[in-house]
């Protein structure tokens, strides 16, 4: 064998050593391999590896590489990882693998795993992931979800088959445990998904009751996107000595793909900017718009309808089946715009989470003193108003898997910096680019546009400052969105026409009408669609609701004189912000000419009663 020579054409010292020594030394000096492990290397059941491959998951993410082996060893795990990092598979795969391993020697049926999620949407999503990963072992794995709005008798019948895994919200789980419908005497695994939200959603008492009913030695896995005081409380209740994983993905490229912008503008400019963004297609692709409450969502939808911009609504009033259907069809690309009322961002009330993770009160001192009086007035007003029953387990800013979202628009800024993180986490996922745009009301502009003002926007500037500091610690920039306010004024009269048409009566009737329609689709037609699944394609959730609003055909099209030089093609500019329009000047194209001839003022001219112009012919006798 030819020896390797160095740069001086001499044998290297390693080649001159004895063969035995040469063989041992490279082993000690051998560099560790940098190849990433596969799912098969994690020690999972081969059937689960096959199911993972079918879902086109090539390699495990960083959080999956670290957490799955610990879960398979039976350790309690408290894992913090960013949104979209594959946290659901972290606990689903070890649970399925453990159940399959036990059933190979002991086929005694009992409920082995309980998965608790703060919202019904997230619980339903987890159940679907379990079905996907157990596709090649469906005969050995039986899962049940307790999220449907059904009677206790139906839930009891679901649990009578003794499912291996139960997916539920804490309230439903404790209700069935307390009624003896769900037995947890032999429970082996407990999972808390989005654990930091569980207590914030009001499940304190339910969680304490569940903890007292569990047997000793239950393996607990907690997944969260943030570390907060709520996690410390749950850790003390359920975990023995958990392994804390604070997984920070190396997502430098991902951060660059998420562009964050904000706009400081008056309240009425929010509506004008939204109209321009979607009508002129300044932002293209599927978009999520977050608003503060349900009325706000319907006002925005009816406003868009004036310009023939189609959108669908997601809120806590709609039935669960309808909400899940909207999310699924949005993920399939059927809808481009979802207006989501993020009511759970108000869970923190006037408490905002600072950069240190602690809660901070953003109420001014004057409001704190008058807090009791304000609460009494609000309670009285709530008693007077008859509102629809809302789902307390609803939430869209956390956990729900929105796919291929091109942009997130915070039409109403959230009340805390942590809620902002969870909202913008819906976009720029799986290597895709994304944009987050937030509307901020300056303190000097608050309350000036009374028809559309919102109380929660009073502290927008304080929240924005915290968001910017928080994102700076993550090496992310939140930049101002460039646009010319003077060039927007040409469209302002059209915006005002549309807003005037969206009255409170129209909002109330649209809200009632859609709720009635969705209830009909969700309950009455449920069995029909189970037998005829192809007919579901004919149901759309982004239909027009503005039948009672004043229709204005001239708003559906943008006239050419309002467009920039070059027409519609000029709108495809790559620069951030609005495409420059024509310079302001006396635009004679849209001035209304006064009619010639006599005046039509009230009180002048000849009055005619239209009812007296009809001539009735009597029938001949």
TrEMBL record:
| Top-level taxon | Eukaryota
Enzyme Commission number(s): 3.6.4.13
Principal location class? nucleus
* Chain spans, region Disordered: 1-40, 359-390, 540-563, 580-621
Show the GO cellular component annotation of the record: cytosol; nucleus
Localization: Nucleus
Classification via CDD domains: DEADc_DDX56 (cd17961), SF2_C_DEAD (cd18787)
Q: Keywords on this record? A: ATP-binding, Helicase, Hydrolase, Nucleotide-binding, Nucleus, Ribosome biogenesis, RNA-binding
Q: Which Pfam families match?
A: DEAD, Helicase_C
Where composition is biased (Basic and acidic residues), the residues are 19-30, 359-380
Q: Please state every residue range assigned to the domain named DEAD-box RNA helicase Q.
A: 37-65
Motif Q motif in this chain: 37-65
Which residues does the UniProt record annotate as the domain Helicase C-terminal? Answer: 257-489
Q: EC top class, in one word?
A: hydrolase
Swiss-Prot/TrEMBL catalytic activity: ATP + H2O = ADP + phosphate + H(+)
Q: One GO molecular function term?
A: RNA binding
Domain Helicase ATP-binding per the UniProt entry, residue ranges: 68-245
GO BP, sorted A to Z: gene expression; ribosome biogenesis
Residues making up the signal peptide according to the UniProt record: none
Q: For bias kind Basic residues, which ranges apply? A: 588-599
Cite the SUPFAM superfamilies for this sequence: P-loop containing nucleoside triphosphate hydrolases
- Give the UniProt family note: Belongs to the DEAD box helicase family. DDX56/DBP9 subfamily.
Relate the protein's function as given in its record: ATP-binding RNA helicase involved in the biogenesis of 60S ribosomal subunits and is required for the normal formation of 25S and 5.8S rRNAs.
Put simply, this protein is called: RNA helicase
Q: Which organism is it from?
A: Lasiosphaeria miniovina
């Amino acid at each position: 064998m030819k020896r390797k020579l160095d740069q001086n054409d001499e044998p290297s010292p390693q080649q001159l050593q004895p063969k035995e020594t040469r063989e041992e030394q490279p082993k000690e000096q051998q560099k560790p391999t940098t190849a990433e492990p596969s799912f098969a290397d994690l020690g999972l059941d081969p059937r689960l590896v096959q199911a993972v491959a079918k879902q086109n998951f090539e390699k495990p993410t960083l959080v999956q590489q670290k957490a799955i082996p610990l879960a398979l060893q039976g350790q309690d795990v408290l894992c913090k990882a960013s949104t979209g990092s594959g946290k659901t598979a972290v606990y689903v795969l070890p649970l399925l693998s453990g159940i399959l391993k036990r059933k190979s020697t002991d086929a005694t049926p009992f409920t082995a795993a309980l998965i608790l999620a703060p919202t019904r949407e997230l619980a339903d999503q987890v159940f679907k992931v379990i079905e996907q990963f157990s596709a090649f072992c469906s005969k050995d794995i039986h899962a049940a979800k307790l999220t449907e709005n059904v009677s206790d008798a139906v839930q009891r019948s679901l649990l009578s088959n003794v499912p291996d895994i139960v997916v539920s919200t804490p309230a439903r789980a404790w209700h069935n445990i307390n009624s003896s419908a769900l037995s947890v005497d032999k429970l082996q695994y407990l999972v808390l998904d989005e654990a930091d939200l569980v207590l914030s959603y009001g499940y304190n008492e339910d969680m304490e009751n569940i903890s007292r009913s569990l047997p000793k030695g239950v393996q607990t896995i907690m997944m969260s996107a943030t570390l907060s005081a709520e996690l410390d409380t749950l850790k003390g209740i359920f975990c023995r000595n958990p392994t804390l994983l604070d997984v920070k993905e190396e997502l430098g490229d991902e951060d660059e793909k998420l562009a964050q912008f904000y706009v400081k503008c008056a309240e009425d400019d929010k509506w004008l900017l939204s109209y321009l963004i979607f009508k002129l297609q300044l932002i293209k692709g599927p978009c999520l718009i977050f608003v503060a409450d349900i009325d706000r969502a319907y006002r925005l939808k009816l406003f868009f309808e004036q310009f023939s911009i189609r959108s669908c609504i997601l809120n806590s009033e709609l039935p669960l089946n309808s909400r899940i259907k909207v999310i699924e069809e949005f993920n399939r690309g059927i809808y481009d715009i979802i207006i989501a009322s993020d009511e759970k961002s108000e869970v923190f009330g006037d408490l905002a989470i600072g950069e240190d993770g602690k809660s901070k009160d953003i109420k001014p001192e004057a409001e704190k003193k008058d807090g009791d009086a304000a609460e009494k007035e609000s309670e009285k007003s709530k008693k007077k108003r008859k509102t629809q029953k809302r789902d307390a387990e609803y939430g869209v800013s956390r956990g729900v898997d929105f796919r291929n979202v091109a942009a997130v628009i915070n039409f109403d800024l959230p009340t805390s910096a942590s809620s902002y993180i969870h909202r913008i986490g819906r976009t720029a996922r799986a290597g895709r680019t994304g944009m987050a745009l937030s509307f901020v009301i300056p303190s000097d502009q608050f309350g000036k546009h009374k028809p559309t003002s919102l109380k929660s926007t009073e502290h927008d500037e304080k929240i924005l400052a915290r968001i910017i500091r928080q994102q700076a610690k993550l090496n992310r920039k939140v930049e101002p969105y460039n646009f010319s306010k003077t060039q927007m004024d040409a469209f302002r009269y059209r915006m005002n026409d549309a807003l005037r048409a969206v009255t409170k009566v129209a909002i109330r009737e649209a809200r009632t009408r859609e709720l009635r329609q969705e209830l009909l689709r969700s309950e009455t037609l449920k069995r029909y669609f189970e037998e005829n699944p192809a007919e579901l394609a004919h149901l759309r959730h982004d239909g027009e609701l503005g039948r009672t609003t004043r229709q204005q055909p001239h708003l559906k099209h943008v006239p050419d004189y309002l467009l920039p030089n070059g027409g519609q093609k000029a709108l495809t500019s790559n620069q951030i912000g609005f495409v420059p329009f024509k310079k302001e000047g006396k635009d004679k194209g849209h001035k209304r000419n006064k009619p010639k001839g006599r005046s039509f003022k009230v009180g002048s001219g000849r009055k005619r009663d239209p009812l007296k112009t009809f001539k009735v012919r009597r029938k001949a006798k």
